[in-house]
């Protein structure tokens, strides 16, 4: 586990600035949701924490370490995307073991890690299947399994449930929360769904057009919104 400190971060693509000085402090073990309308910069910020996008100005620290110039694989974060991004030609077990193999972990250690993650996520009966033989929910669980086996300091989720139907989404929300209670890994969870953001978070970050409008626990945002945008965004149905 580690804290994540985002300090006055700017991001431009070419001449277009899309993040205009974002600061967020995430405590060790905290579950933070990043919420806001489509295009407000949530994915860009998450990708900067992961190291997939360069920081134009400002800094990001994971634990004590400023990571602006640290390569993604040196950051000890694991990201889960909405489109699963599983390798179709690999089994569930191979998908989960792949990143460990890249890290040079021994076969025995990797097998043990995969078993442990599969047990936590109820994937033990599916380890020899291929992604095409899985349901959407099962695939999403494998994507989470791939993140868990690496035992990262920080989990980054980018709208992981948006491809699932409503019923499964509610179930997976609960599973992700349970997982967090069990592992206590610092988590940054991006969603455009305010219900998801409100029910899952220790702390919510409300973004709008590349800035942070408000940061606080769900009830505080609900009771004392800083402005009309937060009030209408948090208060309106998903
Ligand atoms: P969100 O995840 O909140 O929907 P994004 O972070 O994906 O928003 O995008 C924020 C803004 O940055 C949008 O205006 C988007 O078009 C722009 N953007 C994102 N990625 C790129 C890119 N690689 N090149 C140019 N513009 C981009
Ligand atoms: Mg996005």
TrEMBL record:
Question: Looking at the keywords, is ATP-binding present?
Answer: yes
Cell membrane among the record's keywords? no
For this UniProt record, the keywords arranged alphabetically read as follows: ATP-binding, Nucleotide-binding, Transport
Query: Superkingdom of the source?
Result: Bacteria
Q: Which residues form the ABC transporter domain?
A: 4-234
Any one Gene Ontology molecular-function term assigned to this protein's record? ATP binding
Q: Which family does it belong to?
A: Belongs to the ABC transporter superfamily.
Its recorded name reads Sn-glycerol-3-phosphate ABC transporter ATP-binding protein UgpC
Origin species, per record, is Mesorhizobium caraganae
